[in-house]
Amino acid sequence: MKKPFLLVICSCFLLTLSFCQYHPEKIDKKAQALYGQAMQRAEDGNLALAVGLLQNAISIDPKYVEAYLSLGGVYGQMKNARSSVEFYEKAFAIDPVFSMEYKLPYSINLASLGEFQKALDAINELLEKKPPKNETSLKATQYRKRCYEFAVDYAKKNPSTNYVFAPKNVGGNINTAESEYFPCLTIDGSELVFTRRLNSFNEDFFYSRDSDNQWQKAKPMEGNVNTDQNEGAQNISQDGQWLVFTGCNRRDGFGSCDIYISYLEKNGWSQATNLGGRINSDQWESQPCLSPDKRDLYFASRRHGGLGGSDIYVSHLLDNGKWGDPENLGPEVNTSGDEQCPFIHADNQTLYFTSNYWPGYGDDDLYYIRKGPGGAWSKPVNLGYPINTIDREGTLFVASDAKTAYYSSDRGEGKGGLDIYSFELREDVRPFKTLWVKGQVYDKKTSKGLPSAVELIDLTAKQLITKVQTDEQGNYLITLPVGKDYAFNVNRKGYLFYSDNYSLSVESSDSVYQKNIPLQPIEVNASIVLRNIFFEVNKYVLNPESQVELDKVVQLLSENPNVKIQISGHTDNVGKPADNLILSNNRAKAVINYLVQKGIAVQRLTAKGFGETQPIAPNTTDAGKAQNRRTEMKVISK
Known about the structure:
The protein has four domains: 2-157, Tetratricopeptide repeat domain (Serine Threonine Protein Phosphatase 5, Tetratricopeptide repeat), CATH 1.25.40; 168-429, Neuraminidase (6 Propeller); 433-521, Carboxypeptidase-like, regulatory domain (Immunoglobulin-like); 524-638, CATH 3.30.1330.60.
């Protein structure tokens, strides 16, 4: 019975000897002296000199485990993860037992290289063989384990594709030895606005214009928006007319940091105005972002009543021109951690933000959510590695093409400090590509510009996507996310509304649309084409998508109770003229029946079919025939 016990003891003793090959007391004295100098240089912040001294120590004594481990740590501080991993592994090879507790920093550098499975294996080994006794260290180790498990699981669920993450420095006309950050663009991509930190202290806004796909030399923004105080975390509206930003510790502030707004005027940007006590609290508000129609303001706040830490809020522009009370985006988005850096894309449906709570790679990760048909937000989706890393990610801006993204980083190849980079966003985390329409609304009789409301409505969901107010001269810009069919309406009291249709659900060009819109005063014989009334071929049952347009007619007649109208139906010349006349008359009656069902008195309504007798385009092309197949509304008395 004693012999096997002795064999076990001998086996364990031999196993220990095979792993415990390191004897600190036997390290060469000169190597130890160099090590001490290296540690002093590292404490002083001279990491490069520390590396040299440590490598000299190793050359004197190749078994110096502490020197290898310290090189791994110093290279990690220098963000040279590959060298860090190399020297940690050399230490492990000499004595894995002595070096076991360094599996945590080793795993972190593995994760920096995207080697998450190896990082997870390392952390599991640490927790199995030598779990930290300190509670704080144990929690940190367990946190890293969860992050690595997320990364490994994400990679399994999202197999690698041909996507290459290759950030490109936007160049010396933008980036300098100073720090540049918070990039944002107008919707046409012609102007880039960013924050630059001057003399390592003062923050001002700069801009650059695009010329032949090259950014020109950046200039300070003209006007009165830049001051001797700090201005930062800005966002320019898609039309380039408004600038919202963060100002801290100002005399007119409500809290530590407040949100301000400046407007583009003839001679530059106006003096900034505090957005007031509804938007700003006695706490911290920052990182504002305007929706493309300038009717929603998203921002981060630490105000009382939130879900914890920093939350994302939205305030809606009221009809009186003031901002409404901010609404917390709720527990579907906000958590007990920090949610920050909201960015709503030009599609007005995809919101990017950072969070240090939702499952991710560690620290602040980037996520996106989409707005559903009822306005509810989807569950946050992590943008994945390598866009997200184990380090803190910051604000992200995605251009209207839905694939070109901008961010700031202190990557080694930069000009100095933080630089602005662009990169191609991975396809599965892109927003909707967005085109746009711009032009002027004017009175058809006088040609005078008219301030008006411009609306974009999803015909299938019957949901208002965007609503913008033109300026005083009637100028407008409205975004068109591809992938859906839209009703485009322009409204002004005392005028017939204007309607158009953009079918972008199947295919779309890269074109943008210039459309100047004449509105007709409500008067006898004024008429418009109702471009969003739809029927199946040779049928007169209204398609569901017609409801959006028909409800506009109901609204017009309700607001003008003395107006009487005629609905006329028209066809192309395909088929027999007699059949076309009957079809057009039945289609006009179908519209009348809908209006009556909605409460409009039948005495105010007349239906008439004209068949193919009043074409407005040649019937020789498909496009011409499509124009001739139409429904019109004409005022017959008021």
